[in-house]
């Protein structure tokens, strides 16, 4: 049976990341929210956040998904391209999206389905641990690591690095499509200009 696109869970915008235990903090990537749907090793589709089929734009990511070694899966993430400094750069992504399908990286941050099992009722941290086990080093599919430390320090350092911001997720949050306060995003407004 062919798996279907699942509308994404969307973080609520906040002024700063939430403090305290029970939250995972990741870099907010400057790219296109994307979902990989593997119905079978030879049946892979890639969708935009609105559910548009962008498989042909993402040939390199489709090739990488074939190497995951799964029967079927649905993976949520962000497609990015990097600049000369190795940082996600939205302008670089816009330049290559139609020109070079092998210039993009898929940063995987959630696993919604795996080998016949719907994982959306499992907590975020556990889903991410399963996802981490699928990612192969050197692939165009990379794992979006949670950052160690307290939220305020992470937010400060992300801003200093010229990155877009932080996405914070409740470690026990179930995956629910649409807007959610279990996932929040805080943007660093002073951003490094792109070259």
UniProtKB/TrEMBL annotation:
Example of a GO biological process term: DNA repair
GO molecular function: ATP binding; DNA ligase (ATP) activity
Keyword annotations from UniProtKB, A to Z: Ligase
Entry-linked Pfam families: DNA_ligase_A_M (PF01068)
Domain ATP-dependent DNA ligase family profile stretches: 20-187
InterPro entries in the record: ATP-dep_DNA_ligase, DNA_ligase_ATP-dep_cent
Family label: Belongs to the ATP-dependent DNA ligase family.
Protein's UniProt name: ATP dependent DNA ligase-like protein
Taxonomic source organism: Rhizobium loti (Mesorhizobium loti)
């Amino acid at each position: 049976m062919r798996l279907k696109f699942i509308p994404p869970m969307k973080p609520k915008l906040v002024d700063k990341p939430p403090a305290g235990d029970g939250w995972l903090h990741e870099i907010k990537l400057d790219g296109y929210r994307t979902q990989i749907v593997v119905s079978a090793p030879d049946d892979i589709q890639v969708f935009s956040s609105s559910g548009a089929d962008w498989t042909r734009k993402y040939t390199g990511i489709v090739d990488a998904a074939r190497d995951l070694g799964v029967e079927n899966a649905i993976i949520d993430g962000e497609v990015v391209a990097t600049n000369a400094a190795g940082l996600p750069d939205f302008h670089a992504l816009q330049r290559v999206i139609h020109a070079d399908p092998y210039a993009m990286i898929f940063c995987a941050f959630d696993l919604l389905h795996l080998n016949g099992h719907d994982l959306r009722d499992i907590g975020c941290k556990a889903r991410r641990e399963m996802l981490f086990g699928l990612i192969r080093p050197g692939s165009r599919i990379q794992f979006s690591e949670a950052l160690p430390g307290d939220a305020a320090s992470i937010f400060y350092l992300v801003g200093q690095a010229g990155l877009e911001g932080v996405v914070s997720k409740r470690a026990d949050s179930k995956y629910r499509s649409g807007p959610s306060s279990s996932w929040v995003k805080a943007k660093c407004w002073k951003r490094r200009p792109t070259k």
